[in-house]
Design goal:
Helix content is about 40%, strand content about 10%. It contains 19 helices and 14 strands. The chain is globular, with a radius of gyration of 27 Å. It has about 675 residues and is an alpha+beta fold. Helix 12 packs antiparallel against helix 18. The chain folds into four domains: about 1-35, no CATH class; about 45-190, no CATH class; about 215-390, no CATH class; about 450-655, 2-Layer Sandwich (Beta-Lactamase), CATH 3.30.450.40.
Length: about 675
Amino acid sequence: MTGPAERESRRAANARKRISRRPSRLGTRAGAAPEPDRVREPGAGFPGLLARVWERARAADGPRAAVDVLLGLDGHVPPEVQLRALSTADEAAFAALWGLTWRAGGAADAAGSAVPSYDGDGHGDDGHSDDGHSDDGHGDDGHGDGGADAGHEPVFTGELALATTGRIVMRCPAHPPLDRRELVGGVLRVPWSRAAARAYHDARARAAVRTARAVADCRAWLDRQGGKGRDELLEQAKEAALRTAPFVLYQEHRQYTNFRDQNTLTGKTLWPGHPDCALSSLQGLPLELWSDSDVQLLVCLTLLIRSAGPGRVEEANGTQLSVDHVAAMLERIRLLYAAVPGGPAVAPAATDGVEDLHALAEALGTRRRHVRGRIQLYREIHGALMHKTERAATPAAAVQRRDEDMSARLAGRLPLTGGTLAELGASAAAAPGWLARPHGGFGTGLESLVYETVTAAAGAFRADFAMSRGMRSLPALIRGLQAESWAEICDWDISHYFCCVVARPGARAHFGGSAATLADAAWAMSARMQYNSWHFVPGNLPRDPAVVARDHFVPPTIPDIAFFSDLHHHGHVTNKVRYSIRSPQPVEVLGRTFDGFVDLRLLRCAGTPFDEQDVLAAQRVSRFVARATTLAADLAAGGVPLEVTAFDTGWHWRAVTGTDAPRPDPAGTPR
């Protein structure tokens, strides 16, 4: 039976949960504010971007110029991503009208000759003049640049539009008008010449043959796996969808996503086994009853996962998930890895058949482990379509200069010696005891090291915000590991984690000049990063039932650089997270490696994006923090008490404003 004291404790705990932790209203009752603290600016987020892109396209000098605007979403994504998102019909139209294609070697016209592929600078050398006129759906003069024969009326007038998903869509010959309910605005009229219509017809015929062959091959390959094998592949794909960041994939106009709206795959909205999940609905269903889209979906997900784990799926974000698209991606990755010296070479796939592509994917997975030991891989993220691309970084002198700059800043603030971050780390390893003792106004040297490193990084990288996260009680983690208390570790909430966020003074300009608003933004970022730690840690534990049942992501292992990430994520939109670097690092605790246990994040709200050299320099900084955290874990394993108590709500208010957080009066209003 529950006693009075225990009931009171529960009541008190619930009362604390109803108290706001926002720095500007610390201690007041949550939800009592008369109005929102901040209202999203008009035009913010993805819908606002699409509206601006459409207006730019409408104002362009003809359909061909409008295509350039739409392909890059006015400079927000690489044009090739949008080309890969086109349906089969729209892909054929782009090749026939403008000679644009993502395929190596260009598209084929009606005569079988090559027309150029997209050259990446917004202009394909298609031989068409830009003398046409575009409109918003109210007709044109019939002489646009879509390929009408000189001096003759076009044989067909089609439509070009931007869907609310961000994809380009077209009305092609023999197709009905586009559904205006799915479009950002109206349509641009596109005249078709007789030659373009014929080229389109022939391209569609070739695509139909190619697709039929690919689907038949996928069915045959899945049939060879047997019922048990297919179920295992479905489980693998469902686990990948559940444990990775949001993605949106297409099969023609059908959307597969674990992200908001109408979810069709297991994720935040659909639990594993949900009947609306396309993968779950296939389990136990005879293969002959699977749709062609579902057949390709499972095969393509399998190929991507085998090449690099679930994270590879995000590299198909916003594109068509078909065998030929995946084959092209695997070949690009093969060439990327082939440029790294040493290790066994990976030959190209012998054919475009699934069996050969599967062998290539597995070979790339093996090769990737070798490559990661020799060069720094990272992912480039284009936030508008959440598309990711794996890259290999090439170091330059700027990385060493940034390292030395950071080291000089830290050597004067920490009891360490050395001219590089590696030397500072070695100095810490030689005498790590200070990490558990008070230092620099903090309860432990570890807290001081994290704060000073983040502060130095904000200045050295010219970031509006810099931050690093971790676990508050390493001794508690060690006790949990020793007892194999996986359920207990999974049960910890975000208060068991911390994130130190430092805002440069100039960042206030992005928040109306308000120190209070800036402090609230820093606190919100800190809370979100605590959630990220909470989300990643279980991914490093054994597959105990408690771990499997707990919501978590596969921990990150390589850094990434993001462009225009202030479009989808509500927190990013609100707090103006436009350009960022994430540099995750592993930490070893009791001989167990915890991937993504700490990281360094750098954010800019506007101005110049970060670049590849910034990524490499950030890796050195985050590696320094990870080494110190591993040393602290070793101290904790030896019985040294080491708790992180800083970096809470009040701390972030003081760090930004220089004053103590406001205290509520008896009526609950901050003073």
